[in-house]
């Protein structure tokens, strides 16, 4: 089963700003921050035990990393598969920046020497198996980002596209695809394939929300870094896509007497905005 999340440019800016507020001098990329959040939330949704090792596999473009630079317009395959490993307990209990930094360090090592050593290895071992399905299935995760593809500029004779999606290639459990949201510049679409039972539990474990309200323990808000509260709000907003909004409207039609905006829902210890 797949779920679609839309992430706005403003939400990504909030996550980046939180990293600086927590004292991280590293300018983490949008890719590292978003993938770190997905990896952390997927481990929570799957309810992985603390001692479970989880592997994150993702692709990286080597065009800008090889020396001398490849000719402009080179059409060959320069995509390299990368992997980083962590314990599920660390992903779930440590700050988001733990996962983000693992991804950042993996990308940082992809220099000219490393990539050419990979090319030499594949020449010596041409039958090496790549992209095995079990490398992305639970407890693992596989990420493919197409966010840099110029899909917004595609024009087949009737103007700019209003939606870009995938076919059956996303049906493999544990696969995640990130694309540019052509509806609004700066936004991203994230398509995640998980087992049905993990998707059903995502309200609590993946998105940390219930309905439209963000829920957190007072002790967590006071003791954890600022990113914790910000991520709770961000993940709540991420759920509010077209499908969710329409299901909410349908629910209210079926239950017109539902009580909303009760005063005790925003009185202490709660908060209403």
UniProtKB/TrEMBL annotation:
Q: Which Pfam families match?
A: Transferase
Q: Which InterPro entries match?
A: CAT-like_dom_sf (IPR023213), Plant_Fungal_Acyltransferase (IPR050317)
Q: Which GO terms describe its molecular function?
A: acyltransferase activity, transferring groups other than amino-acyl groups
Instruction: Point out the signal peptide segment.
Output: none
* Keywords, in A-Z order: Acyltransferase, Transferase
Q: Which family does it belong to?
A: Belongs to the plant acyltransferase family.
Name this protein carries in UniProt? Transferase
Which source organism does the UniProt entry give? Answer: Parasponia andersonii (Sponia andersonii)
